[in-house]
Specification:
The structure holds 2 protein chains of 2 kinds. Helix content of chain A is about 80%, strand content about 0%. By secondary structure, chain A is mostly helical. Chain A has 2 domains: about 40 residues; about 220 residues, MetI-like (MetI-like fold), CATH 1.10.3720.10. In chain A, α6 packs across α7. The longest helix of chain A has about 40 residues. Chain A starts with a helix and ends with a helix. Chain B is α/β, with parallel strands linked by helices. Among the domains of chain B are: about 50 residues, no CATH class; about 80 residues, no CATH class. Chain B is built from 9 helices and 10 strands. A 6-stranded mixed β-sheet of chain B has the order 6-7-8-3-9-10, with helices on both faces. A 4-stranded antiparallel β-sheet of chain B has the order 2-1-4-5, covered by helices on one side. Chain B is globular, with a radius of gyration of 18 Å. Classes of the chains: A mainly alpha, B alpha/beta. The interface between A and B is medium-sized, with 20 and 26 residues.
């Protein structure tokens, strides 16, 4: 079609009819969505505030003065969570990367490292994080070795090692999703196995695995709160102390809201990356 | 002789793909491998490039036994270029980065001179404006030409082309074949596995017909494609003519 015929083209009556029909349909669906949202919202509010125990729940979970009183302590605890998260996430990504590459090595020479990496990913993905934290934070100091780090470091190590095993498996799936012909092409150019991994396979693997990787990182963000089990005063431990002092659950709600706010940016990034990956896949790269 | 394959054997499980194959290629010679699917053309090329290990026999390059397990395959591959049927460009790198990866990382050349040389090649085949594009923005023919440049920039002693036009739309085949014809003019030694009989006839110095893992018949294109001696070659060519590809 030439540009001229595009400019002068008048839609036929049939096409005008289709446009009108589609517009009517779109307006109807917006109306239906608005009405059903309003109905569900009202029902929820009525069901909760009209419940027989609502007044008790309101005073023991949503007490504004208690929230204000313990907010500074909880924020201070959250700062520990944030620092711990930054360090643990970086270490877990590195650990996962190493373990995943070790698991893909071929050849009998590498059997021991491959076996170790496999045992690691199998055992720590199965072991509940809480048990790992207990074992690290209370078991290792129990050995009474000189230079044992404090419980925060030990608990952080437990989180790192557990998440490293998840990340290793996500990355390994990513590595295996890169077609063998890419490795063949890299080797045919004279690149060594290491160079081929570093420049050709891993960049593609990380890109493909990034939605799943970020998902693990988001999940790690809240699990750093489990460090409270080892003893240090993080946001959850601060909330627990506040809750014990005031005989009220509000501090927990405060900590929960703070954790959600802390996670929101990364969740946003994850959604964006996932969407972009899906769009790329559909474009048929 | 630049390349000599002697009594090469390769099996995958119970399938014998190469069964005592002999082939010699001289410097500046262009040899076309023809034969039915599964006759061992691609496997032979992969064996020469050491992507696949031979089960028996010897392959020498420049008089050096490259099937000797003591040899470092990376050093052998630096002397051989390989172009794949499905291009296999690296999708996460621009065309220019695809081409300069090996010169910079393997041959230790400064990035600027590698880029300059890559750009010369790209201009020569009319792809200079695609240097900073990612492979998925290129047509099949453009991708394959970029892949041929990638295999060529290290000035290999031998260029292996594995059915490089088989994945292309018919109207894109021509641009790739023109490029290969130019390379012959430059004196590049090539082994090309191909289904393009007309092209093999034009560009090859010698045509080798592979059948059941052996070179059954070889000689000048006019003879092998025009007046083959072996009954199986005649059968193969009759099927090709039937399919309208000669």
């Amino acid at each position: 079609m030439t540009e001229d015929s595009l400019k002068v083209h008048q839609p036929s009556d049939i096409q005008l009819g289709r446009i009108a029909y589609r517009r009517g349909k779109a307006i109807r669906s917006v109306l239906v969505a608005a009405v059903s949202t309003a109905v569900v919202g009202v029902l929820l509010v009525v069901a909760i505030t009209g419940a027989p125990g609502w007044q008790r729940v309101k005073s023991s979970f949503f007490d504004a003065s208690i929230a204000r009183k313990y907010l500074p302590d909880i924020l201070e605890g959250l700062w520990l969570n944030i620092r711990l998260f930054a360090v643990c996430a970086a270490c877990a990504l590195l650990l996962g990367l190493i373990a995943s590459v070790l698991r893909t090595l071929r050849g009998p020479v590498f059997f021991p490292v491959r076996a170790l990496a496999t045992i690691y990913t199998y055992s720590f993905r199965g072991l509940p994080l809480i048990i790992t934290i207990y074992l690290f934070a209370f078991g290792i100091p129990g050995l009474r070795l000189q230079g044992t780090p404090n419980v925060t470091v030990l608990g952080g190590a437990a989180i790192t090692i557990t998440y490293g095993s998840y990340i290793a498996e996500v990355l390994r799936a990513g590595i295996e999703s890169v077609h063998p012909s890419q490795m063949a092409a890299a080797r045919s150019l004279g690149l060594s196995y290491r160079q081929s991994m570093r420049h050709v396979v891993l960049p593609q693997a990380v890109r493909r695995a990034s939605p799943a990787l970020l998902n693990d990182v988001v999940s790690m963000q809240k699990d750093v709160g489990l460090i409270s089990l080892a003893g240090p005063i993080d946001a959850i431990r601060a909330a627990q102390i506040g809750s014990a002092e005031s005989a009220n659950f509000t501090p927990y709600v405060v900590a929960g809201v703070l954790f959600v706010l802390f996670a929101l940016p990364l969740i946003g990034v994850t959604d964006f990356v996932t969407l972009r990956a899906a769009r790329r896949q559909n474009a048929g790269t | 002789m630049l390349l000599t394959c002697t009594d090469v054997r390769k099996t995958f499980g119970s399938a014998v793909v190469l069964d005592g194959l002999d082939l010699a290629v001289d410097e500046h010679e262009v040899v076309a491998l023809i034969g039915a699917s599964g006759s061992g053309k691609s496997t032979l090329l992969r064996c020469v490039n050491l992507l696949t290990e031979v089960d028996d026999g010897t392959i020498t390059l420049d008089g050096e036994d490259i099937t000797n397990p003591k040899i470092n395959p990376d050093f052998v591959r630096r002397k051989i270029g390989l172009v794949f049927q499905s291009y296999n460009l690296f999708p996460h790198m621009t065309v220019l980065d695809n081409i300069t990866l090996s010169p910079v990382k393997v041959h230790g050349r400064p990035s600027s001179s590698a880029k300059e040389q890559a750009m010369e090649w790209l201009s020569r085949v009319g792809l200079a404006d695609k240097a900073d594009s990612y492979p998925d923005r290129l047509s099949g023919g453009q991708q394959q030409r970029a892949a041929i440049i990638r295999a060529l920039v290290n000035s290999p002693r031998l260029l292996l082309l594995d059915e490089v036009t088989s994945a292309l739309d018919p109207e894109l085949v021509g641009e790739v074949l023109t490029m290969i014809r130019d390379l012959k003019g430059d004196g590049v030694t090539m082994i090309l596995a191909t289904h393009e009989m007309g092209f093999a006839r034009q560009v090859a110095d010698r045509v080798a017909f592979l059948d059941k893992g052996k070179v059954l018949e070889q000689g000048p294109p006019a003879q092998v494609l025009g007046d083959p001696v072996e009954a199986r070659t005649r059968q193969f060519l009759a099927r090709i003519i039937e399919a309208g590809r000669l």
